[in-house]
Amino acid sequence: MLATSLPLPVTFTLSSLQTCKKTKSTPVHCSSPQPPQSPMDLQPKRVAVCGGGVIGVCTAYFLAKKGASVTLIEKSSVACAASGKSGGFLALDWCDGGPLASLARASFNLHRSLAEEFSGAESYGYRPLTTLSLTVTESEKQSPPSRDKNLPSWVDGPARGLRAIGSTETTAQVHPQMFTKTLLSKAVEKYGVEVVIGKVDSVGVEGGRVESVVLEGGRVIESDSVVLALGPWSGKFEMLSSLFRVYGLRAHSIVLEPKEPDAITPHALFLSYYPEQGGKPMDPEVYPRPTGEVYLCGMSSEVELPEDPEQIAGDPESLEVLKRVASTVSSHLGEGEARLKAEQACFLPCTDDSVPVIGEIPGVKGCYVATGHNCWGILNGPATGAAMAELIVDGQATVVDLARFSPARFVGRRRKG
Hints:
Layout: E1 10-13, H1 39-42, E2 46-50, H2 54-65, E3 69-74, H3 82-85, E4 89-91, H4 101-117, H5 120-124, E5 127-128, E6 130-137, E7 159-166, E8 171-173, H6 176-191, E9 194-197, E10 200-206, E11 209-215, E12 220-222, E13 225-228, H7 238-241, E14 246-258, E15 267-274, E16 285-288, E17 294-302, H8 316-329, E18 338-351, E19 357-360, E20 367-371, H9 377-394
Parallel strand pairs: 2-3, 2-13, 3-9, 6-15, 13-20
Antiparallel strand pairs: 1-10, 4-8, 5-8, 6-7, 10-11, 11-12, 14-17, 14-18, 15-16, 16-17, 19-20
Helix pairs in contact: 2-6, 2-9, 4-9
């Protein structure tokens, strides 16, 4: 841990990794005179947000909306990793009963508000969905069981056990890459966010307070606050890796373009899929999109995180399984009936306690982290960004209580891994 007061400037570098991981408040009315503001108080807070995924972009958007001067730094391209390759599924109440409940509910409602403000249906494929649970047994493909009349017409494979698990009031979707890019575009156009393409080399700290971000090549971006929102790559910073572990779970997906897209109704499918060769059931997911595409995902495992998110490669066998799932679930998604538009993989940022890390880093004033959202990053991006903006600008988050997510929870714990 860092001391809160350091006599000399300290720079945290990526190269040093090997050596060093609603309560509603009652307003208080005060009649005493307030001290005059200093010139510095009148200046907009300068914030560098590191990471161009959905968490970083949402944070930059809400910070700028609150009047901060924001620089968004992204190594390669915006939404190039999980924020561009995930399913974009949104659920109001699926996290109820757990630590993410208030965050998920607040964010689901923020998604709805943003879609109304920015014509989300047209801009990034926002729409409510009916969500179904099904059991599919691959070996029954040639002699399928009697068909449930309540199944969507395009689901003509060996499906049984139909159960509704989400309605158009409680589940929805966005195209994640289009959502992220639309929000960033609004942040730039309306609030003047600056986007810088470059790799963060270090975070400068002096006297226990953050003062800058240094990019590879030497460019220094002076900052009053820094937000590290680099997904699983957040763990590349020693000030984080020494405190907690954030790792990447590689998940695979394919995107299909059916010849008859109008035949595919807006029903998301969560499957218990029994492969023909036996073994434990898999849990792939199927998301038809208003663009006419159908997205399928699944087959996840913890593997080594590559340095460059643009260079992530999927496991060929896992991708083939997803193609087989598609053709088994629906003849509309089989070979010859649908064009394979993409086969890909991404890394979901995870923590050892399965709870995101959102808040100020202990001992480093002005340095914040927002990572570890696992498969709920797209859902929880807006509330995370709004809460971070409140925390940084106002000193306290009100949209959601961030105490459960604070990195301070790891202080004194024995870090895994």
